[in-house]
Description:
Chain A is mainly beta. Chain A has helices at about 50-55, 70-75, 100; strands spanning about 10-15, 35-50, 60-70, 85-90, 95.
Amino acid sequence: MSVPLLAPGDRVLVKDDWPEFRGPAHIRTPHYLRGKPGRVVRVLGGFANPEDLAFARPAPKRVLYHVVFERPPLWHEGEAGDDVLVEIFEHWLQPVPAERQAA
Amino acid sequence: MSTPARPESLARLDRLVAALIAKGIVTESDLVEAQARTDRASPEVGARMVARAWLDPDWRRLLLGNGAEAAEHMGVSMAGAPPLGVLEDTATLHHLVVCTLCSCYPRAVLGYPPSWYKSFEYRSRAVRDPRGVLAEWGTTLAAGCRVRVVDSTADYRWMVLPMRPAGTEGWSEDQLAALVTRDVLVGVALPRLPVALAAE
């Protein structure tokens, strides 16, 4: 496993990317999280990239994180304080710059 | 509610197994062992892990730190199985597990998932309206308890470590394990005392 670029507590943005519209794809990042802000809770480890495994391609290990998202902003409904905890691979996450975290 | 397999599916399975054996990819005894392992897996394993965590702080630490290692201590072979993560409920945080992408489920310690867990309805609603789903299960959370939905999307499998119910002081591991159902381990239900005892 390569060295994790993110650490618990880091603010992140899930990439607003839709590879399934460009061709055959296998994706473990749910639709409802694309482009959404979250926070890294823990590093889960390195795992062979399922996006490659699904097509029997060489699958280098990628860092997998547990990332938490506030739930009401995802659906525009629900109780404040509720959240969703999801496993997301590093190549789907963008760090949010510190100045934006303070804002 | 599964429908019986169609004869042509069974015939195809027989041909597949014969081909895998002919190519030396699996043996008959591999298949027998895999079948036995699958048959042994049941929510009773997960229930016992929870009951033990309620009684033994050291075991609780092991379970929360490395669920797969804890399962191995229970005699479950985790070789080749995905890592197991354990989600600790508290008075202010309740966990509910779903796999919105497919039906990832900690089979090694819970056995086969129920059909509702794999249903489109549960998968789409649990992540959007978990409190509505819990209400339909008759599950009432204490005021001020947050709900954390755990969407099992990748390489881990997740089970819930619920809070030990009040009124179970002095209970044995067997008595406690009997309170922990499959639904409790997924997080749609809470451990409940038998009605007769709860009424006292």
